[in-house]
Specification:
The complex is a heterotetramer, with two copies of chain A and two copies of chain B. Chain A has five helices and 13 strands. By secondary structure, chain A is α/β, with parallel strands linked by helices. The longest helix of chain A has 9 residues, at 5-13. Chain B is α/β, with parallel strands linked by helices. Chain B has helices at residues 8-11, 33-42, 62-66, 82-90, 100-111, 175-181; strands at 20-23, 47-50, 70-75, 94-97, 116-119, 133-136, 139-145, 149-160, 165-166, 182-193, 212-215. In chain B, strands 1, 2, 3, 4, 8, 9, 10 and 11 form an eight-stranded mixed beta sheet that branches. A three-stranded antiparallel beta sheet of chain B has the order 5-7-6, covered by helices on one side. In chain B, strand 2, helix 3 and strand 3 form a beta-alpha-beta unit. The termini of chain B are far apart. The chains are: A alpha/beta, B alpha/beta. At the B-C interface, strand 5 and strand 7 of B face strand 5 and strand 7 of C.
């Protein structure tokens, strides 16, 4: 059965390691914060200028001067620190952020990503996405495997305007965990009850299926 | 030399039609509410505005849009604004979308006396069109130019009469770099104190960058995306 | 992940012969006294040191010079050090003198993920030899490369166990940029506190840049040029 | 009579204007701080990271963490601010410092300056001088008119390695105030009792003497 968005986030959270500094994009990526494994210390970076992002505030405790990059009210935790936008993107470009998780409209088998613009539709802007994908050490895409029309969002080449080239390493969808290798998409794990054949049928582009592919365990 | 102005109207008095203005803030957080109101009142036109966002329909830079004061918007993200969309589609408004880190860094470059900077962001995308690409240590970078802005308008939490500024939490965002980058920098602050009342060790923007300062009033600090959790 | 080390000996344990080390401080102000002592004790050799100054004969980086641990010194000013002069003239020590602002900016470039920066300093002088000159808006600039340093060793006033740092007064100097620029950054602090004890709004170096931190002891803080006025 | 070093500083102080941010080099330039005219507000920048430099501390009140670029113990004043070296030189390069005063070994009639290196002698380094001369908006050189051998330090071209090119606008020596113009050195004021002829005789390079040259008034 296909994963829920919560489960996609939960699966991605298993990639977290102790001491990681992590930037989580808007949407499914934000949910990853709810599944940080016990016993490890992960610090969340918000590119508007906060390291050590805490949970949403209790009602009545919202502080308009304290928001995340999604403009949501948030809180600090012990050890939090504020800084300006130049330093924030400086630390991203300098490779200090260990992992970035973000959504996508399309990902190509060479690791290109498109997630900011649809020709003919109003363009809202790339925000920090182009900086993040260009510079983060390690990027995981969290997305549904297919678009609302049922078409694969994994493609030989992106058709939409690019956000970044050759930058994505791993994709977690509602159907599969897929690594991007030199030879194309490589199936790593299947959603429980979803067959490799089903995943192949919903993936346009080279999908390497090497031996038995394990199911995800939650 | 007195940097202290009476209010926003006085501080923006000489901003003329056609000026380029940097405006601090991220979304509606840390925006110069008083100066925006004064600019709307003054009805200055054909402004090029450099700001991360364009506000919402009825707040922030959105108020200037509604009043058709902007010729061009340079921003990284302009969602949440219907009037913006209308003016863009009708051709009344020119827009240049640039990556958020590039926006921050082009401000910073101006403030640090660097004419241009190299950045990874946008390589291989349409943002790179017409720009110089250069390889350093095996990676491609875009050459991006420092901004040149007549005015920078920033919002700080505390300021002293020498122009030293301290921002609060994530309301800091673009304000410090813009403060450094403006030919004329105008700061509005929630609290204006005498020189010596702020600890010199914790000032974010040294007064040398600030030409005009005034105590703002009536801050609304509208929250764009109020998100809360239930009490356990 | 634990960033807290017991002392300087533990913090510098894996610095090997031939390493490149950035060392914070301006003159003897804000230098990592504990780590310098530990490096002398460890007797690591062939070090390339990036630091604004080279200490004095019997203090600061001068102690490493005396112990003949340096292969190369990259600095802006190396006066006040007889042993330095001797080693330089005898060919034991290589030295690269660069403008102070260029030194600061090349550290900053590394910390901000910029491969290179353009600066006015040194245009038309011997510092420009072999470097690319480029004209922007009618002025010539030199292209200067970001530093690449195995370690950065900095001294802060207060730090917390998450690595957040606050410097004191002019002991800040090169420390923040170097902290951002090192592949591994080691911070020694006068006061080490729990996360949450430092105001998140006034931290100079966010902990993300700091890999190791320890509480230093026995700071001498020698004054290089004691200058006083008479009491009226 | 030739000016004393104190008088050179005193003359330079007349160039200060209300609201100026000023960087004073080591030596004679430092003395300028003692002669800031009453009624104007001048803020001293020290390139090691201090804006708003106060006087030297009283004995017993020296703070080793609070020094100027000459490594002398100093104090703060109300409105002082500390910052790092990158920001310090950033503000210099961005033209925020209104005036820089520094010493020199040689100045050329095109405004080149040499003040950091003598071939054959131990080189101590340029410190911040190259940044300051390249980037300050307005630079005044404070120096003796001749070197200890009696040779002019004002020259058609510098003979020593340069610190900066075409950057000096004004020179105040023990004998004269001289502007650097497109046509060369231009005599603006004479030290009391020193004739234009004497100044000309001690100046190598074009010296424009246009009409009666006033004496300095103290």
């Amino acid at each position: 059965m296909a994963l829920t968005k919560e489960q996609i986030a939960q699966r991605i959270a298993k990639e977290l390691q102790d001491g990681y500094y992590v930037n989580l994009g808007i949407g499914i990526p934000t949910l990853v914060a709810n599944y940080i494994p016990n016993g490890i210390n992960v610090t969340l970076q918000s590119e508007n200028g906060l390291l050590g992002m805490g949970p949403f505030p209790y009602e009545g405790e919202e502080d308009p001067d304290l928001i995340n990059a999604g403009k949501q009210t948030v809180t600090t935790i012990p050890g939090s620190v504020f800084f300006d936008s130049a330093m924030s993107f400086g630390m991203i470009r300098a490779g200090k952020v260990d992992l970035t998780v973000l959504g996508a409209m399309e990902v190509s088998e060479t690791g290109d990503i498109a997630n900011w613009k649809i020709p003919g539709k109003m363009v809202k802007g790339m925000g920090g996405a182009m900086d993040l994908v260009a510079a983060a050490k390690n990027i995981i895409v969290a997305m549904m495997h297919t678009n609302p029309k049922g078409e694969s969002k994994l493609l030989p080449q992106c058709t939409l305007p690019l956000t970044g080239v050759k930058c994505i390493r791993k994709i977690v969808t509602d159907l599969a965990v897929i690594d991007i290798t030199e030879d194309g998409f490589k199936l790593i794990e299947r959603a429980p009850g979803v067959s490799a054949d089903e995943i192949r049928s919903k993936t346009v582009g080279t999908l390497i299926v090497d031996g038995d592919i394990p199911e995800m365990i939650f | 030399m007195n940097k202290v102005f009476k209010n926003a109207d006085e501080a923006v008095k000489d901003i003329a039609d056609g000026a380029t203005i940097m405006m601090g803030g991220f979304g509606l957080c840390g925006i110069p509410e008083n100066c925006i109101a004064a600019l709307v009142k003054k009805d200055v036109k054909n402004i090029t505005c450099i700001s991360n966002n364009a506000g919402v329909d009825d707040f922030g830079i959105g108020l200037m849009l509604k009043n058709r004061q902007l010729k061009k918007m340079i921003a990284s993200y302009v969602g949440e604004n219907g009037e913006f969309e209308r003016q863009l589609l009708s051709g009344e408004l020119d827009v240049e979308l640039i990556p958020q880190g590039t926006l921050a860094t082009r401000c910073m470059a101006a403030g640090y006396g660097m004419p241009a900077v190299f950045t990874l962001a946008g390589v291989g995308t349409e943002v790179a069109a017409g720009k110089e690409v250069r390889n350093f240590n095996g990676r491609d970078y875009l050459l991006e130019m420092a901004f040149d802005s007549d005015f920078a308008i920033v919002k700080a939490w505390k300021g002293d009469k020498a122009g030293n500024l301290i921002y609060k939490e994530t309301a800091r965002n673009f304000n410090p770099m813009m403060a450094m980058a403006g030919k004329i920098t105008i700061a509005e602050v929630e609290e204006l104190v005498e020189p010596g009342e702020l600890d010199p060790n914790i000032i974010h923007t040294p007064g040398i960058y600030v030409h005009r300062i005034f105590k703002g009033t009536g801050y609304e600090k509208r929250i764009e995306n109020r998100t809360v959790r239930k009490r356990g």
